[in-house]
Give the backbone structure.
Amino acid sequence: MELKGKVALLTGGARVGRTVARALAARGCALALIYRGSRGAAEQAAAEARAAGVAAITLRADATDDSQVSAAVAGAVSALGRLDILVNMASTYEKIPHPTAADWSHALDANAKSAFLFAIHAAPVMKTAGAGRIINVTDWLPASGRPRYKGYLTYYTAKAALAALTESLALEWAPEVLVNAIAPGPIEPPSDLSSDENARVLAATPLGRWGGAEEIAKAVLFLIETEFVTGECIRVDGGRHLY
């Protein structure tokens, strides 16, 4: 798919999302940026896109609420005239050693249900137009079939569900809509990461460094431009899964 003149809807516009938005705008793709609490980050990303010469809007929506998601997708199509690409980056990442039923529901809603809702409202628009791309962001651990870290039961399960959703939607919506996922590993170090923790991450990553948000943007671009990859989950983890 050629990006120039297309419209992409992105959920989760902070941090990595801003870099992805910048890469799409640089190639002539208009943007609809969805936020719930990070309005400032979304507005800044939209301003950068407009400075790059493309249309960009921000829309507030709770990604776990069906009516709000439906309204956001409709609002994007109304404002920008079409919808060709959906990038689901909205996510939560919490260590919960003893999860409750509420923790379970929250993790599944935030990480899997949110992507499902945006997908089912965006896909009909794409299918009517004859082509579309949906890209979900999961995690290198479930993509590798290894929980590895204790305390992340709900997060791991939710991201594994997202990988399964990706495959199922790819089958359901072929050939018009290609649905794929990206499974990041060590991309950006947390602000509170200690030097010892950082050293352990680097030692466990064959490429010996953090990838940077640009590597996710490159994977997004590939999955938009390809015409023959669907139902795939691409690890962008510097070889982390090999250890």
Q: What stands out?
A: The radius of gyration is 17 Å. The longest strand covers residues 177-184.
